[in-house]
Amino acid sequence: MRTRRSILPSVSTETQDLAAKDEAISSPRKKQKRTPKIDKPDHHKNMAIVEKINQDQENINPNISREALDKLADAKSIFRRSADNTIDFYVGRQKERDTIQEFINNIQSKNKNGSLYIAGCPGCGKTALMAQILEKSKIVHTFLNCMTVEEPRQIFSKLVAKVFGKETTLKDSFECFKSNIDASKKPILLVLDEIDQLLTANGDILYKLFEIPFSSNNKISIIGIANSLDLTDRFLPRLKLKGLEPKILHFQSYKINEISDILKKRLEFVKDRIKVQDIALELCSRKVVAIGDVRKGLDFILQAIEKAEIKGKESVEVTVAHMVQVLNNSIQPNSSVFKIKSLNIQCKCVLVAFYRLQNKHITVENVLKEYEIVCKQIGTSGLSRSEFLDICSTLETTGIWSFQTKGSQFQKRIQLHVSTDDIKVACQKEKILESLFLNE
C-alpha cells in the first residue's frame, strides 16, 4: 500500500491559495479603478476571504418567498445531528450491518438468546447504524442510553419501567426485572448505548446484565454499545471464564473516502438547494479523519452553509473560502496537544508506541513492533498491517509526523512534528492508555 501524501496539509496555508483561485473563478470582475498590485502578507489573504463572504451576504433579494426560505432551512436541517433517523442517510459499514442483522435474525428465527458488544471511537457510526437497523426490524426491542441513568444500580428499575411499564423499588428492581423477563413469551432485545456508564468498582451491574441472556428461563438478548475496545476483557474477565462473554463487534475509524461518501449522501438529498465544491468537501473530510468523529463533518458542513448563505437566495454554494474559514475557527490555541487529543484511539496507540521508543532514527517497522506490544499490554486487539499503514498516513496528513526517507513502506524513517511531551500530555489521561504512563 502506498502512503498517501496530503495535497492539502494545512488549512491555513495551501487551502487559502485554493480559496483565492476559487474566488477568481467564481466571481466575475467588476469594473473599477485598478490600483497597483502589492504583495500582501498571509493575514491579508485571510481578510480577503472574509471580505468576499461578507460582500456576498450583502446582496439581498427582498422578493424571495417565505416558502423558498423554509425549503432552504429544511435542507440545512439534513446536516444537524438530530436529523430524522427514518431517512436512509447511512453509507457503508456493510460487514458490521450483516453481523448485527445476523445476531437479530438468530433471536427471531432460532429463539437463540445472546449478547453482543459493539465498540469503536466516538462518531464512527455505531449508534446510527443500530438505530437504522432497529427502525426496519420487527423484533420487540427497547433502546436506552445509559447516560440517562443517574447511577448504575438504577438501571434495573429504569428497565422495568421502560420495558414492562411497571414501578419497583430500587432494592427489589433486579428481582422484579428478572421475574418479568422470565414470564415474557416473546423475544426481547435490549439495546444499551453508552453501557460503560454502568461500570462499577466490581463490575456487578454489568455482570448481571450480560449473564441474563444465558439463563434458560428467559428470551432476552442484549446489545451493549460503548467506546472502549476492551470493556469486557479488562473489566469483566469472569464472563470469559464462565463462557458467557458477548460477541465483540469492533467499528474501525472511518477513512477519508468513507467520510466523503457519508457527506455526499446527505448532499444528494438537497442537491437542488445546497452545493459544496469538491475541494471544500475534501478539506472537510481530511479534517474529520484526523478527529475520528464523523459528526464533526456534519457540523463543519452546516457552519460552512451558514457562512455561504446569501440573504434572499433560494440556494447555497459552499466554496473553499467558506470551508477554510470554518476550519480555521475550529483550531484551538494549544494546537499540538489538542490535535493529538482529537485523534481516535488507534492513532493515539501508535503515537504512544513512538513515544516509548524515544529514538532519533525510528522507522515505521519499529513503531509497528512497539504498537503490537502496546496493544498486548492494554489488552486489546491491534490493527492489521494495512490498517496500521492507514493510521500512519492519517498522522502524516494531520501534520503530526512525516516520512523522511524513500523505500518500502515499513522502512521509511519518521520525523515527528510535535514534541514527545505533547504526546504524553494528550494521551496519559486516556483511560485505556493511562497504565502505560504509571511508572514515569
From TrEMBL:
Residues 1-45 are annotated as: Disordered. GO terms for molecular function: ATP binding; ATP hydrolysis activity; DNA replication origin binding. InterPro entries: AAA+_ATPase (IPR003593), ATPase_AAA_core (IPR003959), Cdc6/18 (IPR016314), Cdc6_C (IPR015163), ORC1/CDC6 (IPR050311), P-loop_NTPase (IPR027417), WH-like_DNA-bd_sf (IPR036388), WH_DNA-bd_sf (IPR036390). Keywords: Cell cycle, Cell division, DNA replication, Hydrolase. GO terms for cellular component: nucleus. It comes from the Eukaryota. GO terms for biological process: cell division; DNA replication initiation; mitotic DNA replication checkpoint signaling. Gene3D superfamilies: 1.10.8.60, P-loop containing nucleotide triphosphate hydrolases, Winged helix-like DNA-binding domain superfamily/Winged helix DNA-binding domain. SMART domains: AAA, Cdc6_C. Residues 36-45 have a biased composition (Basic and acidic residues). It holds the Pfam family AAA. Residues 112-245 form the AAA+ ATPase domain. Residues 351-427 form the Cdc6 C-terminal domain. PANTHER family: CELL DIVISION CONTROL PROTEIN 6 HOMOLOG, CELL DIVISION CONTROL PROTEIN 6-RELATED. Belongs to the CDC6/cdc18 family. This is Cell division control protein.
